[in-house]
Structures
1.
Amino acid sequence: MVYIVDDDEGVRESLTLVLRSAGISARSFASAQDFLHQAELQQPGCVLLDLRMPGMSGLELQEILAERESRLPIIIISGHGNVPVAVQAMRGGAVDFFEKPFDLDRLIERIRECLVQETERSRHDSRHQEVAHLVGTLTPREREIFDLLVQGEMNKSIAARLGISIRTVEVHRANLMSKLEASNMSDLVRLAMEAAQATQ
Amino acid sequence: MNDPDQPPTNDAERPVACVLLLGTDPTWVQTLRADLDHPWPTRLQTLRASSLGEAAKALGETEIDLVVVAPDAHGQSLDDTVARLRSVAAAPPILVVREDPGQTAVAAQSSAVFHLSADGLGNGVLTGYAHCAIQQARNQRQLAETHSRLERVVAERAGAIHERARAQEALERSEKRFRDLVETTSDWIWEVDATGVYTYASPKVTELLGYAPEEVVGKTPFDFMPPEEAERVAALFRDVVQARRPFSELENLNLRRDGTPVVLETSGIPILDDDGNLAGYRGIDRDISQRKRNEDELHAYHTQLEAMAERRSAELMETNRRLQQSEQLRDAVLERLPVCISYVDADQRYRYNNRRYEDWFGVSTQELNGQRIRDLLGEATYAGVRPYVERALAGEEMDYEGQIDLPVAGRRWVRAIYVPDHDAQGGVIGYYAIVMDISQRKQAEEITRRHMAELAHAYRLATAGELATELAHELNQPLTTINNYSEACLRMLTTGEMNRTELYDILERISQQAHWAADVIRRLRQFVGPREPQFAAYDVARLVAEVMQLVEADARAQDTSITQDVAQGLPKVRVDAILIEQVILNLVRNALDAMQPYPPEQRHLALTARHMTGNQVQFSVRDTGPGVPPAVAEHLFEPFHSTKQDGMGMGLAISRSIVEAHDGKLDMTSNDDKGTTFSFFLRAAEP
């Protein structure tokens, strides 16, 4: 979903139409306040934000979104080639800056990129959550053995380190493999890397 | 008649002495009568006889105290005349007025006949003389009576001693009576001898001079005068004595015994002995100090009156002179001032024209009198003037400017003032007109207006430069919209997603946006383009809307909303729209700038247009900024006076010039609560 925030009705409506023609669904808002009240900030999407608006300005909205930990990518659309304001917006995390009237092909391309990244990100996000969940089902002993396994330790050395029998290690290993839905050692290693990424 | 036994008690009761004036020549009669009428304590009644017969008749019928014979009544023989007059019983003394003094010797000299030279007349000499003669005659008559009585007494001497004693007594009584008479008269009676030494002084002298009669006898009149006065009087007397003339009412200043001054009036007649030699003078003195004082007062009063009269007449002359001056001034005003002054009657005919009309129209003022305005001005000019003439004749005072065509000078700008003239009933019977040539002023105004317009243009260019950024942004919106819609159409037409209706709708929106953009550009071009001043009746709401188009972007950029309050049904105003829009724009932009330091919710800008009394429209721009400090306000409208860092300081100066070129006035007032209001008035266009 693309959110358009611009006080100019003509710009708002024409942009909605052109995005629709490109197969991108969009919702428009006449002010920053309307957007804050009505938009789903945590859903994946992209914001086309006009900098100069009566009431709350584009930069102010950007700050509020950051405070609320929204991860929505922001593309600045402005009638002003106002460099200092653009720089400030970019520092604040805006992904791009378009001057009116727009190069629509590039704008649409950029929006698509953003949306792909968003999908990607959202996909990553759900895998990370899954991994974290699987890892979370392990008992502390299973977790110990999982960590040593992915560091390349053999059953024998693990048993010696933990002061348990090799047989016990083998039982824990079979349990954790089944819990983590891993069929072999390489599955385990990938899981461990994903988990490490998620915690980062 | 004077009764010696009954002495008079005061002047008013004194009897009239009767004088018979014998004379035929009216001139003489008048002269003598006049001289007889001179003021004297005893009034003289004058009877007139024009012939000796009439005189005799009068003497027989009336008691006459004195006969005055005029020089023309001397008859063939004066002696005969005198003798005939004397022949009448109880003949009074005769005063013969003679024209020829040489004949004196011819006349019989007697104590009862007096001669007076005609050239000595005047100033009451005759009056004085008459009184003296009358008095003398009376005295003599009394003396004679006394004597005859005495003689009778002496004749009766043979009678007893008793008789003599009685006679003596009678004499004494008689003398006493005489003395009483002399002594009780209010005047001092005196006699001097030929050398001027007093030989007799009646007791009255004591009252007058404070000296006893015996002290006076032996002295001369001059002994009682201050030296200068004595000298003056002596000189006068020398001639009188020389001519043996009587004199009267000679005023002289004397010093009383106690040294106080007293003014005496002396009259006297010469005493001649039987041979006609001067034996002395006899006369009277009276105290005229009081009269003198009265006279002096009278004189002073008179002088005062004269001075007053002189002053009045001087004032009158001055008034006259001023009047003349003011008339001259009026003439100068009417005739010499470089304006046409006229009076036009209800028929629109000239009744008065000053000479300036001759210069303007080449027609004499005489020819103009009675001429119709229409005929003098010509149809074209008259058509322009007519509504004003008709309104003036309807009783309205007119003051307008217009153009007329003159035969010599050609087309001129004039200002004309018509003042209706009303009759007693209030009806309009004409009007007074003043017409002045204001072409030069108009030219100067035109030049000023051009300069102002050039300056205003330069300033508009600068303003446009400042506005350009915002306007570019403003133009970006429709361009963006147009671009978007076009792209959308292209894509959807390609994919076949868009139907006809949708396409039609989109194209309409595109067209709208394009128009709007074009409008903004046209407005800007109009605003900055070179142009001639154009005054025309212009709609107020349109003025405001056009300004808003230019300034809206700016206001939006500054996040300030503008409240517009344009009253309904406003009359049009006669303006150069671009210039007035420039003024409003300037005021609005100033207001926006002024409020910048405040947060958006505290910025309120109101643009108002209202209908005011006097058929004016008031424009005002009100802000809620910090206001204008008095020190700044003082120079607010001066050029190059700016409070802004990058300001030229020309905006308000030019705005004021523009408003003034529209006969308006630009003002600044501080709001009661907050901020400032700039406002100006424009006259509504004539309907």
2.
Amino acid sequence: MISNDLAITSDLVASHGLKPDEYQRILDLIGREPSFTELGIFSAMWNEHCSYKSSKKWLRTLPTTGPQVIQGPGENAGVVDIGDGDVVVFKMESHNHPSYIEPYQGAATGVGGILRDVFTMGARPIAAMNALRFGAPDHPKTKHLVSGVVAGVGGYGNAFGVPTVGGEVNFDARYNGNCLVNAFAAGLAKSDGIFLSEAKGVGLPVVYLGAKTGRDGVGGATMASAEFDEKIEEKRPTVQVGDPFTEKCLLEACLELMASGAVIAIQDMGAAGLTCSAVEMGAKGDLGIELDLDKVPVREDAMSAYEMMLSESQERMLMVLKPEKEAEAEAIFVKWGLDFAIVGKTTDDLRFRVLHQGVEVANLPIKDLGDQAPEYDRPHVEPKKPAPLAANDIPQADIADALLKLLNSPDMSSRRWVYEQYDTLIQGNSLQRPGGDAGVVRVEGHASKALAFSSDVTPRYCEADPFEGGKQAVAECWRNITATGALPLASTDNLNFGNPEKPEIMGQLVSAIKGIGEACRALDFPIVSGNVSLYNETNGQAILPTPTIGGVGLLKDWDRMARIAFSGENQPILLVGAPQQWGTHLGQSVYLRDIHGRNDGPPPPVDLEAELKVGIFVRGLIERGVAKSVHDLSDGGLAVGLAEMAMASGIGATVPGLADIDPIPVFFGEDQNRYLVALDLDAQGSEFEALLREAEAAGIFAPWIGTTGGTDLKLGQARAVPVADLVNAHESWFPAFMEG
Amino acid sequence: MKSAVVLVPGLNRDRDMIAALTKVSGQAPATLWQTETTLPEGLDLIVIPGGFSFGDYLRCGAIAARMPVMRAVADAAKRGVTVLGVCNGFQILVEAGMLPGALMRNTSLKFVCREVKLQVTNANTAFTRQYQPNQIIRCPVAHHDGNYFAEPEELERLEGEGRVVFRYAENTNPNGSINDIAGIMNASGNVLGLMPHPENLIESAHGGDDGRGIFESVLAKAA
């Protein structure tokens, strides 16, 4: 066991990820040299992962409030009102670094961590999503990472018992050295049954719940705040090991305990385990905390105070308990086979004291550990805007061939291979499973309400223009939720970037946050929780800027819900929100990238005013019951959007295109704020006429572009492609890649 | 119908099953915690739901099969009470020796959640009378270890006695089960184990109600 009296050398400080000026700050704060355990505690609290020291200044600019918001950022998860005394509790969090080092456990514990964030608040998890990004398909590590991460996500979520209803999977060489695993979870609670982490009352027992503490994950949060190099394999011991069975028991025990009225405050032990949770509970409640480590349930012998304070063993909680309920609380945990130990108490001296084997190994000012963490206004340079494509720069291809090639490409092919490894229907409330625009889950105990979930970002847009890319991530998430008929309520952001100490990377982060903020304000889609993952770099190569947005929307009546599948034959198809030429923008499109190998041009700009107007109009059509099949247009534009609606239904469509206009941008342009809507109306009837006039009156261009029916998809002058061929192209890439 | 659902830590489709039984029978089932040794009087049906009992860290269902409640369930089955085990529940019944054979890892070595087609191979059982003989129904599966196996003599007996109740149909066998077996019953015909999840396909919100017939059959018998 390393002694607590270990000499604090500059090497030791550096190996804790603390810069010399940060260490000086510690010396100034406590007026003496820290003990080894104290150094570990500071390192845990002050690393990028826990302190948000590079991003805080900019995160403060995001909109986080609204009449629907009950709890914004700062707690374990955000809380949003959905009426009738019900609330939805949700958050998205990254587990990138551990997943690259040990994909199965990294991804599994990412899922476990986000589920715990949600049920710590008193909510039963009802839905999960995962946004995954991997390196190039031909990179030697990619298959191994895909297979491990997907198995880990499934292994944890399936056993815990939460349906995975959506997500994303993308490939790009820029993720070769750093994959991204962003896990989202949402739960349901009652508005009067929300639990927070703020401790209240002096001299009250601090209780340790859940699994025992081991040496796994010691220093994990510090590892996640540094770049990778070729010695990355040595970091494997910093990855935690997940136990979904214990987590499931912990969920049931916590919900039972909360219902008993015994809980004053509760906090899950995530990054930096016991340290972070204890400090957070005390500091929020303006109280000190004293911990006696001899009482902590351990599963290994001879653990030092340092190891116990920094362990990231999973499935653990810390709670402040009403003393008179102790016996009742302990009985619940015994029933579920979990540890229950009083490990400390709240105090009135605002100190964070840690005792081990009768010795005080740490005695620190509790508020300063969080409040006095360094905060940086890092230098940043404004990203350069790419030049627009020349008007006549429209590389040609056969439309049918290009469509089939895109549907069979790494980024656009069906994700069935992935989502069939996830339990998508457990709990019996899944109304829309992966493969559509958004996952939809009905609200148990309510006759007609349902929640829609989507996770979105287009990293290549963010790379080309982080500001527009940030806007687009929010807009696409909002649009996907709208396409089901749901009203988008609020969002969570998971910002994945490279090393913020580089001004170019910091510039991406700043611009993306500005874009996200602008879009969230315009669309009334506040950010209620989130997470920042920086230093996603290997040997100096950063990932594509990837600010993932997870959103939640409310459907008043799921009987009036739209899906992407065509709902019948001979239905008129409208392209709602289109420009006069239906589609124009090829810059940064998958058509340019995957058909012509080009990554140039600006991403499609998002007109937020139009986005809002068009979205409200489309939602109105769904609520009236005239639009049962709706799909937003994104990657691959009109051609891919139509193909996806056809494949989901087995029904073809004919879309003649425009005379005298180049069909390439029409069918493959990625202009924003567009929806395909197939109407359950007679195209010759008066109701259809009235609807077109209504769109016109609202200032929305919504041309009737074609009609559903038959077994082929016919686009413009291109040859008709049987829907069965589309399905074959779409379904074959992923299994062939993984099993090839 | 008076029903009860067995609760063992790690089972996680208990809520789905309780909801399905409540919706189909109009009556909420009782719950039986793992340590219980006596069962309520007059039960028509005991269900062991799906999940990952004790994490399935040992052989699936092996620990749950040895919990006190399972002895009571076995005694009830001997007295003729109808018992249904779904997914992990099926694995538990096999581990408890109440059904023959074994459920091995899927041949894909992966968890699989998708809809399959089932053939009602024997429509003359307490669980299937609401279906037509050889009727093809839709049903979802969600499991990692559903690959049924039995020794040749045992298999012959099962097939010969009409105890293969459900079979994966139309090339939808998701796990490599021998003879496409999805569900089997005991010799007395009152204990059924099946891998698919009929409780997740009983109402329009589920996109269909093909799974309802199993519960309705037991309900009709109880009435």
